[in-house]
Amino acid sequence: xxxxxxxxxxxxxxxxxxxxxxxxxxxxxxxxxxxxxxxxxxxxxxxxxxxxxxxxxxxxxxxxxxxxxxxxxxxxxxxxxxxxxxxxxxxxxxxxxxxxxxxxxxxxxxxxxxxxxxxxxxxxxxxxxxxxxxxxxxxxxxxxxxxxxxxxxxxxxxxxxxxxxxxxxxxxxxxxxxxxxxxxxxxxxxxxxxxxxxxxxxxxxxxxxxxxxxxxxxxxxxxxxxxxxxxxxxxxxxxxxxxxxxxxxxxxxxxxxxxxxxxxxxxxxxxxxxxxxxxxxxxxxxxxxxxxxxxxxxxxxxxxxxxxxxxxxxxxxxxxxxxxxxxxxxxxxxxxxxxxxxxxxxxxxxxxxx
Length: 354
Ligand code: ZN
Ligand code: ZN
Known about the structure:
By secondary structure, the chain is of the alpha+beta class. The chain has helices spanning about 1-10, 25-30, 50-60, 75-85, 100-110, 120-125, 130-155, 160-175, 235-255, 260-275, and strands spanning about 15-20, 35-40, 45-50, 65-70, 90-95, 115, 180, 185-190, 210-215, 215-220, 220, 225-230, 285-290, 295-300, 315, 320, 325-330, 330-335, 340-345. It is built from 10 helices and 19 strands. The chain starts with a helix and ends in an 11-residue tail after the last strand. Bound molecules: zinc ion (ZN) (2 copies).
């Protein structure tokens, strides 16, 4: 199915063979985690080139793909260029090649075939999730919520940030996640003002703002969820900031639908924060695509001209970060639909630790 969509796109773009080298792309098209090169000709069986470590697993898991063993003494560029010549391909599209490989392969292909970067073509497929992917992403989101619940249970004055992160990751893993989709962020007190925080050995104190940003990985698929809490009773100011960020998220969520420009959704959140005099503290883009990788297209930021499509899975994560004081971020992973958005992460909101 996915290979068929790839071939349709190749045909439209005048590509005779696609050379896929990035691991998440190979996984997307074959369902196999491993392999070094996937060569997909327009109308012949694809070939997956694997080294010895992946050979047995590939042979066992893949039936409709030709598996070729690469030995260390082989020059894979030579093998691929010979295959391309044998197939008579005139144009080879690739997702990613490092400069050295690009040069070597280009030389070997000579004038017989042209090398063309088609990363956009691959992303245009990957960013629109199919039914099977959405099921896996819903499960990843659910596992993430279990992680957040465990983090919340551990959250109290006297505990260290990494202890809270550890509880979250343990709960996700124990419930079936392959692991965290990224390093869990627990950033407390003044550290919550770092948009790209991490879990340090800081001891959490009464009255601290605590940002918890986490995600489970399930069957290769990521999820991304952030909530911010106050340990103890929130102050007026903390509540005011929280409500502003929540409002910004809600306004942005309402703007999400197929056909809208990603930059417009970002603008909704930014405008809302502006009315509270907080826009200058919103120092990052509103969100990003999520899938087999935690950060994928489409990007949602002020400059983003990408049009959202039904089937995109994106995050909506406004935040304010006041240096020396603290920060608040609220993030959900959502599915873009024709007429709106559906939250995949369903954790409740609220600043107080119940
Ligand atoms: Zn996140
Ligand atoms: Zn995110």
